Automatic annotation (TrEMBL):
Keyword annotations of the record: S-adenosyl-L-methionine
Domain TsaA-like per the UniProt entry, residue ranges: 5-144
Keyword match Cytoplasm: no
Record-given protein name: tRNA (N6-threonylcarbamoyladenosine(37)-N6)-methyltransferase TrmO
Family of the protein in this entry: Belongs to the tRNA methyltransferase O family.
Provenance organism: Chitiniphilus purpureus
Length: 229
């Protein structure tokens, strides 16, 4: 038996590429996303009462992942070498490419259709959203829950900006007031592959329309430049 899903909207985010996207929601609180609902789901009555909730679940499609599922995967939290079952992970290589993300609801705008402003997003720009549900803390916040191999927050890097990067950031901030916070939050999570250990290698991530060059010695991410694409 098969089922079909329709996108109710597409999420606009700062992450133009998969590289640099936070590995979990809420790790980059200044990662803002905008979800504009598509017809016929863009009716104001469809979100009536949603603004009373602080957080929502997004059900989405891993639209850029391989369509071939894998029975075991190598989570970054285990160094990229140890394998666990796909159902013991949040890997995109699933039988059905469905994902679930908990984000903060900033604003509900129903003046022209329906637009939701969200924060703490961990999805690439253009991700298809198939459902939105309110987060209910009285049943979904479990203090005694066990987190398996991801029981604690990952360690973070210090983030330093070169003089060139600081100058470019100041020039960019009038149009992107949270760019500095977002940049530091993203790089603090160390988006490098688990096997990367060359302190001289220069990496690049894209946030909005900025190409950000940086390198890392395993303790500190050094931002070299922020060039406009």
């Amino acid at each position: 038996m098969s089922y079909s899903l329709d996108a109710i909207g597409y999420l606009a985010t700062p992450f133009a590429d998969k590289f640099g996207v936070p590995r979990q929601p809420q790790l980059a609180p200044h990662a803002y996303g905008v979800l504009r609902l598509l017809p016929p789901y863009d009716r104001p009555e469809a979100v009536r009462g949603l603004d009373a909730f602080s957080h929502v679940w997004l059900s989405f499609i891993f639209h850029e992942s391989d369509t071939q599922w894998r029975p075991t995967v190598r989570p970054p939290r285990l160094g990229g070498n140890a394998r666990v079952g796909v159902f013991a992970s949040r890997s995109p290589f699933r039988p059905n490419r469905l994902g679930l993300s908990l984000v903060r609801l900033v604003r509900v705008d129903t003046r022209q259709g329906v637009t939701l402003t969200l924060a703490g997003v961990d999805l690439v720009d253009g991700t298809p959203i198939v459902d939105v549900k309110p987060y209910l803390p009285f049943v979904e916040s479990i203090s005694e829950a066990q987190g398996g191999f991801a029981d604690t927050a990952p360690p973070t890097l210090a983030v330093h900006l070169s003089d060139t990067a600081l100058e470019q950031l100041r020039a960019a901030e009038p149009g992107h007031p949270h760019l500095g916070e977002l940049l530091r939050e993203v790089l603090a999570q160390d988006p490098r592959p688990a096997y990367a250990d060359d302190p001289e290698r220069v990496y690049a991530i894209r946030l909005y329309h900025f190409d950000i060059k940086w390198r890392c010695d395993g303790r500190c991410a050094q931002v070299l430049s922020l060039d406009t694409i």
